[in-house]
Amino acid sequence: MMKGSIKLGKIFGIPLNINYTWFVIIVLVTVSYATVTFPAQNADWSAAGYWLIGLLTALLLFVSVLLHELAHSLVSIARGTQVEDITLFIFGGVSRITEEMKKPLDELLMAAAGPAVSLLLGIILGIIALITPPESIVASITRTLAIMNLGLAFFNMIPGFPLDGGRVLRAAIWGVSQNMRLATRVATSIGRAIATLMIVGGLLWSVFTGDWGTGIWFVFIGWFLENAASQSYTQFVLGEMLAGITARDIMSESCPTMEGDPVLQTLIDQQVLGEGRRCLLLTREDALAGMVTQHNINRVPRERWSSTTASEIMTPVNDLKTVDINDSALVVLRKMDVEDVNQIPVMDAGRLVGMISRENVVRMIRQKAESSL
Ligand SMILES: [Zn+2]
Q1: Cα(175) to centroid of ligand 1, in Å?
Q2: CB under 8 Å to 30, separation ≥6 — which residues?
Q3: What's the distance, CA 256 to chain centroid?
Q4: Separation of CA 68 and ligand 1 centre (Å)
Q5: 354 burial level (CB within 10 Å; 0-12, 13-18, 19+)
Q6: pLDDT tens-digit profile of 282-331?
Q7: Distance 51 CA to ligand 1 centre (A)
Q8: How much distance in Å is there from the Cα of 292 to the middle of ligand 1?
Q9: pLDDT category of residue 108 using cuts at 50, 70 and 90
Q10: Which of 299, 356, 311 lies closest to 329, judged by CA?
C-alpha cells in the first residue's frame, strides 16, 4: 500500500485505497469548478449551487479515474496476472500489478484498456453535453467531465514508460524484437526525454510569458514523470536480476532458540543478541512463542534492560510476518518493504526454517551484478 493511504473497501475483489494527497486534489478541483469554471458558464446559479455542483463534478471526475484504473486491473486479471490494489492519489490512480506481464499482447491490452475507457467516457459524456440544453446542469457537468476524460486519455497515452502510452510502446517493441529489456530501455528513455522536455518547456514558458501557474504545473508533472520512469526502470532491472531466485536460495540459518522468558540484560550478557546476532526465537513447551530482534531491544532504554523480559517486547508468533520458502526473492523484498522490517522468517509447511535479512538480498544482487560483468 502506498504510504499515507486509507482503505476504502473492495471493488471486484480488488482493495481500493485513497491516498491523503487525493483529498488535496479534490478540494482544489472543487474550488476551481465552483469559483472559475461554472460561474463562467452559468451566471444564474446560486453560490451554494456552484459549490454543490462543483463538488459533485469533482467526485464524478474521480469515478472516471477509478473506471480507468478498473479497466487496467480487470484486463490484467483476465489475462492471468494478479492485481494487489488500486490507489487514488493526487495525479489520478495507480493499479498495483505485482508481476510483469508474461506476453507482449497481454501488456498491450492491459495498458491500452485504461485510456480506451477514458476515451469512451469522454465521447459518451461529450454527446450527452451536446444533446442537452447548453445552460442545463447536466450539460455543464457532462461537458466538464468529457474534457477531463479526454485529457486523461491523451495524457496517459504520452509514449513514455511507465505511463500507459509508454507501456503500449514497450509492448510493441517487445513484440517485434522479442527483447523485453531492450523494449523497457527504449520506452524509459523516451519517457525521460519527454519529462525533461516538460521541465525545460515549463520553465521557459514561465520566464517568457510570466504565466508561472501553467509553467510550474508542467515542471511538476515533468518531475513526477522523470521520477516514475527511473523508479520503474530500477524496479525492472531488480526484477530481472532476481528472476528465478527464491527464498530458499538467499535465506540463512534460522535464529537461535531459547526456552523460557529471560530479561533483556541476560540476552545481551550471553551475547544471544548484538554483535552480528540479530534475532532470537522464544519457545514455550517446544512451540514457537515469538521472535525478538535487535530492533525490538533498541527501543527499550538501557536502564530497563534488567527489568524487561523478552516476551514483553517480542513479536508474538501470530503477528509474525513470514514468507514461504518457495516465494520469489522479489516477493520477499516487497514484503519487507510493506511490513517495514529488516528481516523476515522463512516458513516451510508451517515450520520455521530460516531467516532472510536485507543483507542476504543485497549480497545476492551484488553476486549477480558481478557475474554479469
Ligand atoms: Zn492508466
Answers
A1: 20
A2: 51, 54, 55, 57, 58
A3: 36
A4: 6
A5: buried
A6: 888 777 788 887 778 888 888 888 888 888 888 887 888 888 888 888 88
A7: 29
A8: 43
A9: very high
A10: 356
Q: Ligand 1 centre and the CA of 163: distance in Å? A: 7
Residues with CB under 5 A from ligand 1 (ion): 114, 156, 164
Query: How do residues 49-104 score in pLDDT, each as one tens digit?
Result: 888 888 898 889 889 988 999 999 899 888 888 887 888 876 666 777 666 677 88
The number of angstroms, rounded, from the C-alpha of 90 to the middle of its chain's C-alpha atoms is 13
- Cell 484498456, residue located: 113
Cell numbers that stand for 61 in this block: 471526475
Residue 309 amino acid letter? T
Task: Find the 185 Cα to ligand 1 centroid distance in Å.
Answer: 20
Read off the pTM: 0.69
Q: Which residues contact 367 (CB under 8 A, 6 or more apart)?
A: none
